[in-house]
Design goal:
- The protein is α+β, with helices and mostly antiparallel strands and about 280 residues long.
- Helices cover about 20% and strands about 5% of the residues.
- The protein has one domain.
- The strands form 3 sheets. The protein has a two-stranded antiparallel ribbon. Strands 3-4 form a two-stranded antiparallel ribbon. A two-stranded antiparallel sheet has the order 5-6.
- Strand 1 and strand 2 form a beta hairpin.
- The protein is globular.
- The termini are far apart.
Length: about 280
């Protein structure tokens, strides 16, 4: 095949096959457009193709200098079709993941540390890691909840899938509906997935039944729980999981803790424990 025709063929494969990209909650189907995140030649009519107008070519032909910068260029609340991961969240209630306490995602005692150049061992874990958005999420989509990578450590661990029931499925343009807390019922895999980096917790039981008599009487916004046997919350099969107490991205509270009443950790504890 002549070189010119080969280039045209490769461009067609790269940019024309977006509609059959991998599935998942986001970045799939019609919303999975390669050129949203990557540039082929890094210039158009002599102008930079990076969205920050920097003419310097970026790694992996990204349209921003780093993965974190690229993700936050849409996920900082500026793009209505992209889930907002920067506090404060503008959705009804809170998303289960919470939000990073600062837009740069840099070190803070209250969240995962993103793009910290010094590898860190996660609390409870053993593998030093440098985290960025794509450590946990597959930007090209997969069949897991929130496009979470089945093995975020990339060390060959047994893949973990998180299963949920969602009334409103993501369609690439409806984050405000998808991230309403009551939209997601966790069915399996949450704590095991977190444990791939953080190990098994030694300070609190997980995947254990909530005291249903207390849980059913809770009047504050309920923290997330696992409901493996039925889709009713509250109900007798509900279980405590990692995200019952911690926001996955971070919060304004120490250790990414959830304050059910917005003021004190006691309000979260008392959703399962008698005062």
């Amino acid at each position: 095949m002549p070189r010119f025709h080969l280039l045209i063929f490769l461009a067609a494969v790269t940019f024309g096959s977006a509609s059959i990209a991998a599935g998942g909650d986001w970045h799939y189907g019609a919303s999975m457009v390669c050129s949203d995140c990557h540039t082929q030649h890094n210039s158009a009519n002599g102008q930079p193709m990076r969205t920050d107008n920097d003419p310097t070519p970026a790694p992996m032909l990204l349209r921003r200098g780093t993965t974190l910068e690229l993700c936050l260029s849409c996920h900082d609340g500026s793009h209505p079709d992209a889930p907002d991961v920067v506090a404060p969240i503008g959705y009804v209630g809170e998303s289960a993941a919470g939000a990073f306490p600062n837009s740069g995602g840099m070190p803070t005692p209250n969240a995962h540390h993103l793009d910290n150049p010094t590898p860190e061992v996660p609390p409870g874990g053993t593998v030093p890691m440098v985290l960025t958005c794509t450590t946990c999420h597959d930007p090209h989509g997969n069949d897991n909840y929130r496009n979470l990578r089945p093995d975020p450590t990339k060390t060959g661990l047994t893949p973990i899938n998180i299963t949920t029931v969602q009334t409103n499925r993501a369609n690439g343009s409806n984050p405000a509906q998808v991230y309403v807390p009551g939209n997601v019922i966790y069915k399996s895999g949450v704590s095991k997935w977190c444990g791939q980096c953080h190990g098994a917790p030694t300070h609190h039981s997980i995947d254990k039944a909530v005291d249903y008599t207390i849980w059913a009487a809770v009047t504050l916004p309920r923290v997330p729980v696992l409901s493996p046997s039925d889709n009713a919350i509250p109900s007798a099969d509900d279980q405590v999981i990692c995200v019952s107490c911690h926001k996955a991205h971070g919060s304004d509270n120490n250790a990414s803790l959830i304050y059910a009443d917005g003021v004190s950790i006691d309000s979260t504890c008392q959703e399962c424990h008698n005062q």
